[in-house]
Amino acid sequence: MSTQFPKDFLWGGAVAANQLEGAYQEDGKGWSIQDVTPRGGWGPVTDVPTEDNMKLIGIDFYHHYKEDIKLFAEMGFKVFRTSIAWSRIFPKGDELEPNEKGLQFYDDLFDELHKYGIEPLVTLSHYETPLHLSREYDGWVNRKLVDFYERYATTVFKRYKNKVKYWLTFNEINSILEAPFMSGGISTPKDQLSEQDLYQAIHHELVASARAVKIGHQINPDFKIGCMVLSMPTYPLTPNPDDVIAAMEFDHRNMAFADIHARGQYPGYMKRFFKEEGITIHFEPGDAEDLQHTVDFISFSYYMSTCETADEAKKVKGEGNILGGVNNPHLEASEWGWQIDPQGLRYVLNTFYDRFQKPLFIVENGLGAVDELITNEKGEKTVEDDYRINYLNDHLVQVGEAIEDGVEVMGYTSWGCIDLVSASTAQLKKRYGYIYVDRHDDGSGTLERYRKKSFNWYKEVIATNGQSLKR
């Protein structure tokens, strides 16, 4: 039986400004936290941007976006997820007036997308807090960032109210638990950051997100505004009830973010956690009311699942498990240790829909791999990336299964639809795209673009609305 994807299903791809735009100081842009992490979000932080930081140039999308969007249109994209670089709009983050040249760039970008009938899906904050806000205010630990973010969100909502319908407030907001600098702009080293300060920073982000939902709907009631979480379904390592409870409690840490976005209040299990850990979340007047401005849909990334156990002797963190957990002995892993579990995507779709009864949007999923550029029989440069095709096919089949289960899925934007710089490692050799970009970790390359084998495969998937997938 072949799955009938909805007729209006939003097929497309996803990127982040800091991983592909480059032009890190062009047209008035300020520095972001990404400009001082040359080894990726989990690596060391430098005082100033250094030449070995691949993100400073990225794939120079800032100057190549027209040709890249033409390629996306050739594949048949219905939607393109990108982010606005906050420091292009407010270079330091705390200014009163925005940078007009930064605003104009995104005007031009969205116009180019609409030229081909592609809807923008825009993330307001995708791991690119202005560096000044990190160093001067310690990022989201400081309550002042709520107001700075509100000013930024209001500015772009008003500017693009007739050009952008779909918005996300924060990228993978729950990743702040493991990456407080990259995710929350928090300059205090992770090993010195108290849980009190961490969860207060999270509260500030959640309030800011809810305020953005409220303001966005006031500016344009037709806006569809979602949250975005890193999904990592957690299985008990064994049927031992202790492992089942350990998996539930681990899952709660991440599920809380979607719970608050979708339900408008802190769940009971988080209140228990705060009580047992001695954490007191300070609510400013109006915070509780602001949180009740819930999102229109839930979006998420899905790359892997994980396991959890109560047995301390077995708690060996998997190499690629971003949020922790232990490896599943029944699954294989990618070159970067990310365990491959297509059925986990069906599982998480069902879990989220059963829990929230809101539309879901898969806004990141893909396989990072080392690709080899070759010249085929036709004399064309390409990549024979059957491994990527197989990965994506198997995950999309499971999306179809979830749709058959009755889950309301809005769309699917595979991650890194064009090769870009990895967020976690700042490498270019970790490639996700349907389009190969000739740039390498040593900075060499022509920046030429080449269609991989997966390019035409995805083009057919979109053209047939998923009917070409192999079960």
UniProtKB/TrEMBL annotation:
Q: Which SUPFAM superfamilies match?
A: (Trans)glycosidases
Q: Does the keyword Hydrolase feature in the UniProt annotation?
A: yes
Recite the UniProt keywords alphabetically. Answer: Glycosidase, Hydrolase
Give the CC-aspect GO terms.
cytosol
Q: Please give one Gene Ontology molecular function term for this protein.
A: beta-glucosidase activity
Q: Tell me, which GO biological process terms does this entry list?
A: carbohydrate catabolic process
The active-site annotation reads E364 (nucleophile)
Lineage: superkingdom: Bacteria
Q: Which family does it belong to?
A: Belongs to the glycosyl hydrolase 1 family.
Q: What is the protein's given name?
A: Amygdalase
The species this protein belongs to is: Paenibacillus kribbensis
